[in-house]
Amino acid sequence: MQQMRPDERREFQRLTVNPPIAGMLGSHSVAIHEIGVLGARVKHDDDFDSDQLDLRFTYAGRQIEMRCQVVRTSGGAAESGLRFVAAIADSGDKLRDMLGILVGKEIDRRRTSPGREPLPSHNVDGDNTVRGADAGFLTYRFENGRWSKRAVFLPEQPSTGFTVARTSDSDEMQRLCRVYEASDDEGRRLIRLFAELSVSDALAIPPVVPS
Hints:
With 211 residues, this protein is of the alpha+beta class. It contains four helices and ten strands. The protein has a six-stranded antiparallel β-barrel. Strands 7-9-8-10 form a four-stranded mixed sheet. The longest helix has 22 residues. It is elongated, with a radius of gyration of 18 Å.
C-alpha cells in the first residue's frame, strides 16, 4: 500500500470519543480518545514492544480489529498516534459503520443545540469545468457567502467546505451545506469527518490477507 506523507495525514479528521473506548493494542491495555477513517489516538501506561501492533476493541457488541503502525508517542509514553495499515476480516466496514453512527449523532446534537439552528441554505452553483468522466468526487466550497461544487479526482478535504463521493445523495448534501453554514469551527471539522466516510471506499484500508 502506498505510504502517505505526514502532511497528507493531517488532512484527515478524527472524532473525539467521550467516554473513551477501552481496547487492546497487542498485549497492552489502551483507551481510545480519538478515531477516524485512517487512524486513532490512544492513551496507555506501558511502553510498546513494537511499532506494528493490532488494535482490538468492541463497539455496539461488534469486535473491530485493525493492524496499526505506531507513528508517534508523547507525554512520557502515555499517548500514541496510530495509523491503520490493514483491516482484519470485515473490521474496515465495521469501523466505517461505527464512525457514521458517532459522527451523525454528534452533528445532530450540535445542530439542535440552542443557538445552533441551521441558516437558510444558499443555492449550490455547479462548476461546469470539464473534469473527465472518471472524476469520482465532488468538492463543495463555501466562499463569500455562496456554495459552489465541482467534480475532482482526489478526495481531499478543502479548508472551507467538504468533499464527498460523487454518488452521495444530493438531498443529504444540501442538508450538510445548511448545517455547515450554521456551525462553528469544530462543527465544520466534524462535517469534514462525515464527508471522509463517504469517500472511505476509495481510501479503503486493505484487509489482512490470510497466509
